[in-house]
Design goal:
It is built from 5 helices and 7 strands; from the N terminus they run βαβαββαβββαα. By secondary structure, it is an alpha/beta fold. The structure holds inosinic acid.
Length: about 200
């Protein structure tokens, strides 16, 4: 089976991506690959951060790999937290600190529209390819559900009444930004296996 290193330390993301990719490829997390580094996210766009992460791991391992960067873009906050989603309330904060700040900043606002955007950066045979997935929905004003991670307890995707945190992983995958970007990654990999020169 073709092996792909997934450049993340976020175990939730590893589980989501593994559930999406199934047995088609062997997805190996950084931990499983024995790589213990904190990958920087210094840029102002998801695209640049995704590239930074995959290049960092490619330079270290010289192996096919991919990364992803995700942000929650909220209309009433001019697209924030966006690329800063992981650090919205500051460096080294918990998911709940970020979520609390989001709800405080949205207090009293009637426009609750938001979208998750995922950018995947694949490095296959030394060349980079990007894939994007967007899930539109809204941010509710209190937390519901205990599954998932990050902003899942307050995000309701269009077409559902449940928050992501009230869904099983399979239900979340039906709607999710990460699923949409991963579907493109899979389609690309199916057409361009690791031995191709693409
Ligand atoms: P990053 O892609 O690791 O920079 O993640 C950005 C932040 O967005 C994470 O720390 C989470 O708080 C949040 N996030 C990313 N993906 C999801 C998701 O699928 N659901 C809820 N929050 C997410």
């Amino acid at each position: 089976m073709e092996k792909l290193i997934f450049a993340t330390n976020n175990q939730n993301k590893v589980e989501e991506i593994k559930s999406l990719i199934g047995d088609l490829f062997e997805v190996v997390s950084l931990k499983e690959a024995g790589i213990d580094i904190e990958i920087p996210e210094p840029h102002n766009t998801l695209e640049e951060n995704a590239t930074e992460k995959s290049r960092t791991i490619y330079q270290l391992t010289n192996q096919n790999c991919f990364s992803e960067d995700t942000g929650l873009e909220v209309a009433a906050l001019n697209g924030e937290p966006g690329v800063k989603s992981a650090r919205y309330a500051g460096e080294a904060v918990s998911f709940s600190n970020n979520l609390d700040k989001l709800l405080i900043n949205l207090k009293g606002k009637t426009d609750r529209r938001a979208q998750f955007k995922t950018v995947i950066s694949l490095i296959l045979n030394g060349k980079e390819h990007q894939f994007t997935g967007i899930c539109q929905g809204r941010v509710i004003d209190f937390e519901r559900g205990t599954n998932g991670f990050g902003y899942d307890p307050v995000f309701v995707p269009d077409g559902s009444d449940k928050t992501f945190a009230e869904m099983t992983l399979e239900e979340k995958n039906f709607f999710s930004h990460r699923k949409k970007a991963t579907a493109q990654l899979l389609a690309f990999l199916s057409l361009n296996g690791k031995n191709s020169s693409i």
